[in-house]
Amino acid sequence: MKRRYSAFAIAREALRHHSGWTRTWKSPAPKSRYDVVIVGAGGHGLATAFWLGRNHGITNVAVIEKGWLGGGNTGRNTTIIRSNYLQDPSAALYEKSRSLYETLSQDLNYNVMYSPRGVLMLAQTEHEVRGYRRTAEANALQGVETEFVGPRRVKELCPIMNIDGPRYPVLGGLWQPRAGTARHDAVAWGFARACSDMGMDIIEQCEVTGVTREGGRVTAVSTTRGEIGCGKLGIVVAGHSGRLAEMAGFRLPIESVPLQALVSEPIKPCMDIVVMANTVHGYMSQSDKGEMVIGGGTDGYNGYNQRGSFLHIEETVRALVETFPMISRLRMLRQWGGIVDMTGDRSPILSKTPVENCFINCGWGTGGFKATPGSGWAFAELMARGESPLAAPFGLERFREGRFIDESVAAGVAH
Amino acid sequence: MLMLRCPNCGVTADETELAPGGEAHIARAATGSDDAAFEAYMFGRENPKGVHFERWRHAMGCGKWFHAARCTVTMQVFGTYPAQTLSPPDDLLEKIDAARPGWRWRDLGAGHRHTHDHHDEER
């Protein structure tokens, strides 16, 4: 059993030259069989394992990962957390997730640095004004705290913004005060530590190469570290979902594209909220280290290179320089891409599959980080009980039935 | 930056001059098809990690549609060909066979491919 992290623990370790800290999670060799195998040790996979243990008492669980823990999109996003969605099923799921973030550091005994600094989504056309007013009304009914604010309030919230831009002046914004950011790596590490403490095995450097089925059920997964038997299989692999689904013998309505982000050199604090500008397509916040964290658009065509197309950097930076003139001389430190799994209605898939004991959690597209704890909560419930009120509207069958959760235009999300 | 040669006008164009049009060679589900067929037509996609066939439009040039064969991992372009066809030309498929032994995309991959006679009949 791990020692709890606390101020007292730091003081105690300070007195003995920090010799008593142990590894955050164990790295065991895989056993031959588990009750549940989760493929993908990103935030969503680890959160699923955590809630399986915490809420449903299922702890004979392995989380297997082809690379390293949290090395995919969990470590590649811009760490934004918000729940200002238009459609009821989305608002319920994302607000559940956001509310879990409020106490996640305490629940995990691991500081995930949740910072409810507020997210402001700019309205820069009349259509956006109307759209966000509608979203604010919908959110009021859904119990999600948001507010439509005018240009003067926008300027108060973010003084470095130029609200009189020549092309797209700021006409207002959708403000969610309890939205914000968290430390993405810490979310994965915190969940991993808690899972490991419950006796679950987190197995890195273990790539799934095949799925063994007998009579319409999954019996085992073949991996680069041998065959691992499973009672139930959960696939939580974002951009590579289509590949895993193919191994398990079904198809997904998913296309994978690179989404890019970049960070600047660190500067003094100048912006204490998150701003998303979806008409000109860019979003920005300032990290605790002082870097400006910038997110842009997805490539318009399929791709698996974790790099993205250069023209999107240009578009994003051009848009942001117009909105925030003071960043024009900033130098950029790093740029990277993550492979995001896009569905036809831009809403995720939390679903049973044609294979009886195989479940899939994917399709989070460009906005999965914010959903990490809520996604795990709902998916664990689905895997443990076979049904989950939060996950029910997000089933695979909605594409056949035409029962879409259409967020591609509704939420004004930066897709 | 991705560059493709438009087979309609012969110009080698930058990505900024082109509009991507999604997966190629998707046949529309016929009238009277069941829900599963419509689902497959509207949402079922290959999404390959490797060789992919796509539709593109030379939007800022001649304005016409064409097809391209491209690798989604390395961004290597194997070739482009006109839009007025139901399947990629044989010489392009052979070129991909040579570059990517064992590749697969629907029933077109090396070892999965039949002769193209029946496609010609459909035309």
Automatic annotation (TrEMBL), chain B:
One of its GO terms (biological process) is tetrahydrofolate metabolic process. GO terms for molecular function: sarcosine oxidase activity. InterPro entries: SoxD (IPR006279), SoxD_sf (IPR038561). This is Sarcosine oxidase subunit delta. It comes from Palleronia sediminis.
